[in-house]
Specification:
Layout lengths: L1 E7 L1 H7 L3 E6 L3 E2 H11 L11 E4 L2 E3 L4 E2 L5 E4 L13 E6 L5 H6 L8 E8 L15 E6 L1 H18 L5 E7 L1 E4 L3 E9 L6 H15 L2 E7 L2 E5 L12
Parallel strand pairs: 1-7, 8-11
Antiparallel strand pairs: 1-2, 3-6, 4-5, 4-7, 9-13, 10-12, 10-14, 11-13, 14-15
Helix pairs in contact: 4-5
Length: 240
């Protein structure tokens, strides 16, 4: 028997009342056995586990995936919103700091770059979704940072497969408390010319970030708060 430590994020962390859960189990074992043990030892997690996403060693996993004693295991809700060498300039970051966008873009510039297309996300003060406060005072973002940056690199590789003319990719997600008007996300793609896929690649980058990069946000209003969870469920095909 050995003790497995499971990292918990967002709603799962809140419901367990701690960042890391521990279960004693024989190894190797399957994630389904781990989930069963978690439900028994942490009753507050039981209703969240069927919808939880699983990561083993920073790759998406399934309930029948086998885990070993030294594996890094994490559980988290659907995202709101292997590292081969990268071909061109990149910038990936999970940060609590303000963004110097001009400085980030400068890292993508080279003699073959004539255009940079970027997307900036901001904190909105009004929310038009059921169950959420109609007014947002601020957002709280958190991330599984080490896995998140690996997934950002994966998105860049996916972009290059689809748009070979892209010469540089930047993806940044801010975490911590962000007030209305603050930048939350930044995605940029550099190309030689404006018609070489930069617009489409930047759109793909932000959409993909919302699917596979483990980042979550909590909406805080004057009368309460709510974690935002997405509907996309990554599969093994979302691993490289």
């Amino acid at each position: 028997m050995t003790v497995l430590r499971i990292k918990l994020f967002a709603t799962l962390r809140d419901r367990a009342g701690q960042n890391v859960a521990e279960v004693e189990t024989p190894v190797p074992t399957t994630m389904q056995e781990v989930l069963t043990a978690l439900a028994e030892q942490y009753p507050g997690l039981k209703e969240s586990l069927p919808a939880a996403l699983i990561a083993v060693n920073k790759q998406f996993a399934l309930p029948d995936s086998v885990v070993h004693e030294q594996d890094e295991i994490a559980l988290f809700p659907p995202v709101s919103g292997g590292a081969a060498e990268l071909s061109y300039p990149t910038y990936f970051a999970i940060t609590e700091n303000d963004l110097d966008i001009a400085s980030i873009q400068k890292q993508l510039v080279g003699p073959d770059v004539g255009a940079i297309v970027s997307f900036n996300g901001f904190v909105r003060g009004q929310t038009e979704r059921d169950t959420l406060p109609p007014q947002t005072i601020y957002l709280e973002y958190e991330a599984y940072s080490s896995m998140a940056e690996e997934k950002m690199a994966q998105i860049a590789r996916e972009i290059w497969q689809r748009w070979p003319a892209v010469r540089g990719v930047a993806i940044v997600q801010r975490i911590g408390r962000l007030d209305v008007g603050d930048v939350t996300t930044f995605v940029a793609c550099a190309t030689g010319h404006r018609d070489q896929g930069g617009f489409e690649a930047a759109r793909y980058g932000i959409d993909r970030l919302k699917e596979i990069v483990p980042v979550w946000k909590k909406e805080i209003g004057p009368d309460g708060s709510e974690w935002m969870e997405g509907s996309y469920r990554p599969s093994m095909a979302d691993n490289e």
